[in-house]
Design a protein that fits this description.
globular, nine-stranded mixed β-sheet, 40% helix, two-stranded antiparallel ribbon, alpha/beta
Length: 334
């Protein structure tokens, strides 16, 4: 079996480490566990050293967010497979075996994720990842089990193993070689949707991204940024435009970017009508930031055969807000 490193990125998360590390240690036999600390100013590092001496600690010199934080830390991790795990995830007995067995027997699987459920409401899927991520034609992300803010109950409908488009950064398994061959996460994303970009690039290079429903974890969520935080709105809208620019052929990318100008404008108007003015402003700022970074994103495009069938449905916005579809299995017919 390949060796496994569980790498937990931390920034001032002492309370989360105290709560969630015991389950990771208890239910992860054979794995080496790392704390990748993003220049915390609380007692996180000293707490882990004192109470969990079996955990290896990597101290980043600065807080580079999710993307640069992992990029820096993983330079020091030698195991064959990385599990990038949020500090607010509670794992279950036997959570590792199904994914490791799948990756061992399927060398074309480069990235995988388990079933992600809500720690507070365990009968429901969790926002960040649910049962695997997808995109619509315009680059908007959604999940099996979660469309926008609507979460499905877990009734066993996603207990399968299947190919997905993106795996959540809350609990992502990725082969070491692939992570470094791809250059890791794009640091210009800082946080949010960098995992979508990484999975997209992996598929452009011929690797599969898989969901393994026999593995299950519980995510608290919202520990860094709330699902409805204006900063997250800014990062999600901007970073999805980054991914389209970098990962699609020009003849497909440019029309979609132009369409997004209209669609994102409609989203901003919707926030205004809801009196969520900071979110509307965040979308405007996201576009200005995207324009500033546009030449840089163009230079990051690789000269490869792009995966052009990247979307599972035409418009998740239309399906959800106009047609009222909140169930993935109704939206997407396999």
């Amino acid at each position: 079996m390949s060796s496994l490193a569980i790498v937990i990125l931390n920034w001032n998360g002492n309370a989360l480490l105290e709560r969630f590390l015991p389950s990771v240690i208890k239910h992860s036999p054979g794995a080496r566990i790392y704390l990748a600390d993003n220049a915390s100013t609380d007692d996180s590092v000293s707490y882990v050293k004192e109470h969990f001496p079996e955990i290896s600690i990597i101290q980043n010199p600065v807080n580079g967010g999710f993307a640069s934080g992992y990029n820096m830390a993983l330079q020091q991790v030698e195991e064959d497979i990385y599990c990038l795990l949020n500090s607010d995830v509670e794992v279950c007995p036997g959570w590792l075996e199904p994914i490791l067995q799948h990756m061992e027997s399927h060398p074309d699987t480069g990235i995988a994720q388990p079933k992600i459920k809500d720690l507070i409401r365990p009968e429901y899927f969790e926002y960040a990842g649910a049962a695997g991520g997808f995109l619509d034609l315009f680059g908007y992300p959604f999940c099996r089990g979660r469309i926008f803010q609507s979460l499905e109950q877990d009734k066993g409908q996603y207990n399968d193993t299947r190919e997905i488009f993106w795996a959540t950064g809350a609990c992502m398994f990725i082969r070491k070689k692939i992570f470094h061959d791809l250059g890791g996460f794009d640091p210009d994303y800082f946080a949010h949707q960098e995992e979508v970009d990484l999975c997209w690039r992996a598929q452009n290079h011929g690797y599969k991204v898989m969901y393994v429903g026999a593995s299950e974890v519980y995510h608290l969520g919202g520990s860094t940024l709330s699902n409805m935080n204006p900063k997250k709105t800014f990062l999600n809208f901007r970073n999805s435009l980054f991914s389209i620019t970098k990962n699609l052929p020009r003849k497909k990318a440019f029309p979609i970017i132009l369409s997004r100008l209209l669609l994102d404008g409609i989203a901003a108007l919707r926030f205004i009508f809801q009196a969520k003015f900071r979110h509307a402003t965040a979308i405007l700022r996201a576009h200005f930031s995207f324009y500033r970074h546009f030449p840089k994103m163009l230079k990051k495009r690789e000269k490869i055969n792009f995966t052009t069938k990247y979307y599972a449905t035409t418009s998740i916005v239309w399906s959800y807000y106009v047609n009222g579809i909140e169930d993935f299995n109704i939206l997407v017919k396999d």
